[in-house]
Amino acid sequence: MTDNAQNNAPGNAPDNALTIRSVSKFRGKTQVLHDIDLCVAPGERVALLGHNGAGKSTLMKMILGLTPLSGGNIAIGTAPPGSAAARRDTAFLPESVSFHPTLTGREQLTLFARLTGGRLPDIGALLARVGLADATDNRIATYSKGMRQRLGLAQVLLGRPKVALLDEPTSGLDPISRQDLYTIIDELAAQGTAVLIASHALTEVEAQTDRIAILRKGVKVADDTLSNLSRIAGLPTRLRILAQDGQAERIAQQTGGTRINGASVEIYCDADSKMDELRRIAAMGDVVSDIEMTPPRLEDLYRYYAREGRI
Amino acid sequence: MIRRVFAIAGAEMLILRRNWWLVMATGIMVAFALALTFAGSSPTGTLGVDMLTVSVSSMTTLAVYLAPLLALMMAFDTIAGERDRGTLGLLLTYPAGRGEILMGKFLAHVGALGIATGIGLGSAGVVAALAGGAGADSVIALIRLIVTATLLGAVFVVLGYALSALAKSPAAAAGLAAGLWLVFVVLFDLGLLGAVVMDGGGVFTQKIFPWIMVANPADAFRVWNIAASDGVAMASGMGGAAQMLPVWAAPVSLLLWPVLGFGLARAAFKRVEP
Fold first, then answer.
1. pTM recorded for the entire structure
2. How many Å apart are CA A135 and CA A254, to the nearest integer?
3. B217-227 vs B51-75: helix axis angle to the nearest 10?
4. Do A120 and A138 belong to one domain?
5. Is A99's Cβ below 8 Å from some Cβ in B?
6. Does A39 or A172 have the greater pLDDT score?
7. How far is it, in rounded angstroms, from Cα B87 to Cα A98?
8. Same-domain status, A207 and A276
9. For A71-82, how does the pLDDT look when each residue is reduced to its tens digit (9 = 90+)?
10. Is the predicted ipTM greater than 0.85, yes or no?
11. Chain-chain contact of B11 with A88 (C-beta, under 8 angstroms)
């Protein structure tokens, strides 16, 4: 029974919107993806990080059924990639998305809505939601890169997808648009869509995703929440203590930290001992006037997990 | 499924109107058809047929060259161009299957070709009829010409899709399309002519040559129009070869080609990775 259930890979994870199991891909003789496992639950936002050429886009194309798998299997719900059911349930925002330049935003979106099926949604409202209300009936040839990206985002919102794949969604967007983008991603997740975001814009996905998977040269080197990843990597949290007048030296001696100027002391501690350290500092009383805490940055993590020679 | 095919066809038709293709193709058709009608109007008296009949026979020769050319100009960019622009990947993630996408584009392209041919050849026909008279026979010959020219265009539309799917870039697709046109419309006939001359009226000329000829959609188009109308056959002077074949040969060839070509294009498109 157990064996049977395991062989039936898509069936044994009915809770996941997207299931990727030991997927490999060869291009010629080069293996570009090695035994990738990744699951995304409905409503979960997962960041897929990696340098250019790490295999992020290839993995997305395989999920979409645009590129055949060399090994392993993928299921969207329970449907194989590229099947009619899978195509109905997935939405995709390609990296630097493009459209036919002679169509207007409204015409392009109407076409996509008709292809999606179901009742035709309010195209005008959808375009207004991504901030294209003024350009609805302009030809796409006149759009800036950021506007095309917004139109690309609007088509992701068509037809309540179960899985949304966003490849570098922030490329070409200014900071305010990025904020809009993440608001929309949060709304997608709130309606139960599993969102997979491929990115190398590390600072942005930090606060915006539930889980982070890191690819390096086609190998998944990490897949966990940000805090767990920090713990595993053993990257220290930095505490900077601002001392009362003249007390910096005393604090440095008591805590074993380093004095960095007349009034501040820096301590590095790992995730497990962070609370102990904080309690110890709090017990010192009013010689401490302020504490600033900096958790490990995603850049540090990324460098740790994507480093050459690990694993 | 039908809804998705029509959605693609609608958008494609809009693009053909927006980028002036429809206007240009219709203009070219009208200009050439009118020019030929007037240039070819002299033999009317000697052959004893009305001017529309003569016009139809000259336009048959024109359409053999022009319909495939216009069809290929539209079709070569269809898949290669979408892939080059980066729009194909996104389109293929939508529920429309590849067959549906191809069918939608086919309907729009053949529709546009039908409009250009209808207006182009039709207007020249009207001018010829007004200038030199027309009968029921010659009107039917004109309608037959318009329908079969569109059908001939449809053959090259689907063959163009197949090339477009196989080519690595739009430029390569354009080159292949030019080659295809040259082979089917020019070189094929030259080759056959050479073979007939070499054969000197032997078995090849009598039995095999007509069948090879009618296997080419461009020649099937010619034979169909000539064999169906005595007047046109007389005006074109090409009745001989057509009479060696059964009546159904040319229509079957011309109707079969679009179906075969579509299957070919569908198979080539299946292998495309955006």
1. 0.85
2. 63
3. 160
4. yes
5. yes
6. A39
7. 6
8. no
9. 999 999 999 998
10. yes
11. no
